[in-house]
């Protein structure tokens, strides 16, 4: 797959805990079957406070070119078969019903640090943007892709919902580095998305995410997050 990883800071200490591969070590879980709850619960149980996620995404606007990076601050959910809460009434799970506010799904403080690191590295990035998450594993039809484009979404993937939602329920600071790999299928003058296109662009640009993450982690560790985490 796209070689995606999550990197997390444990107990605000450095070095961070090991990267976790969202789709499993053999890329055996498709986006519907990723156990988002187990991943986030495991991080929380390990004492993690931050999640830096990367995702290979399609570009839904002219300005979100393949090769670009978007620091996503909003999502639109078009998934259909996913559990988005730990509070599901099952035995052994947290009690009650949780109507969690979702006006600000991502951690603005973590995003600000990622943004300043990108600036320092001289990288041209998009400091904010909206991701649309589809169920997959199929890509969007051209009509769907045009609709997402008309809605004004910036990028599209298959993994941010419910990952960011569960991270928020768990009180983790979650930031997403969206790596644009293709133009999805809304443009007739451009090659439509395919796995080959995604993997090729991802490989060519993965070093950017690595550079960013290497610098962001020690910066996260330097900041006092007590108050921010207390309010989560
Ligand atoms: C391999 S193309 C579709 C696949 O790529 C993205 O994965 P990730 O978010 O884990 O980087 C997208 O969400 C789809 O799961
Ligand atoms: N066009 C696209 N749609 C959904 N997920 C993607 N991941 C990378 N490109 C994508």
- SSE sequence, one letter per element: EEHEEEHEHEHEHH
Kindly report the CATH topology.
Rossmann fold
Helix content: 25-40%
Which structural class should the secondary elements be placed in?
alpha/beta
Subcellular location: Cytoplasm; Nucleus
Pathway: Amino-acid biosynthesis; L-methionine biosynthesis via salvage pathway; S-methyl-5-thio-alpha-D-ribose 1-phosphate from S-methyl-5'-thioadenosine (phosphorylase route): step 1/1
EC number: 2.4.2.28
Family: Belongs to the PNP/MTAP phosphorylase family. MTAP subfamily.
Protein described:
The chain is globular and about 50 Å long. It has 6 helices and 8 strands, in the order ββαβββαβαβαβαα. Strands 1, 2, 3, 4, 5, 6, 7 and 8 form an 8-stranded mixed beta sheet that branches. The relative contact order is 0.23. The protein is α/β, with parallel strands linked by helices and 232 residues long. The protein has a single domain, classed as Nucleoside phosphorylase domain (Rossmann fold, 3-Layer(aba) Sandwich). The two termini are 33 Å apart. The site of adenine (ADE) has 13 residues, from β3, β7 and β8. Pathway: Amino-acid biosynthesis; L-methionine biosynthesis via salvage pathway; S-methyl-5-thio-alpha-D-ribose 1-phosphate from S-methyl-5'-thioadenosine (phosphorylase route): step 1/1. It catalyses: S-methyl-5'-thioadenosine + phosphate = 5-(methylsulfanyl)-alpha-D-ribose 1-phosphate + adenine.
């Amino acid at each position: 797959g796209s070689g995606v990883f999550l990197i997390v800071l444990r107990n605000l200490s450095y070095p961070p805990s090991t990267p976790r591969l969202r789709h499993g070590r053999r890329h055996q879980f498709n986006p519907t079957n990723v156990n988002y709850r187990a991943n986030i619960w495991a991080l929380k149980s390990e004492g993690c406070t931050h999640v830096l996620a990367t995702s290979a995404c399609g570009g839904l606007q002219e300005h979100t070119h393949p090769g670009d990076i978007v620091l996503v601050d909003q999502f639109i959910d078009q998934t259909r078969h996913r559990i988005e809460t730990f509070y599901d009434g099952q035995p052994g799970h947290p009690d009650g019903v949780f109507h969690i506010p979702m006006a600000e799904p991502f951690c603005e403080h973590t995003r600000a640090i990622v943004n300043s690191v990108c600036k320092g590295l001289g990288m041209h990035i998009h400091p904010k943007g909206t991701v649309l998450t589809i169920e997959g594993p199929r890509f969007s039809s051209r009509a769907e892709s045009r609709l997402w484009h008309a809605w004004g979404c910036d990028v599209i993937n298959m993994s941010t919902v419910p990952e960011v939602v569960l991270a928020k329920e768990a009180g983790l600071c979650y930031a997403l580095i969206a790596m644009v790999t293709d133009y999805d299928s809304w443009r007739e003058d451009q090659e439509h998305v395919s796995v080959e296109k995604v993997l090729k662009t991802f490989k060519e640009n993965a070093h950017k995410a690595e550079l960013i993450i290497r610098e962001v982690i020690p910066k996260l560790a330097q900041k006092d997050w007590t108050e921010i985490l207390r309010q989560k």
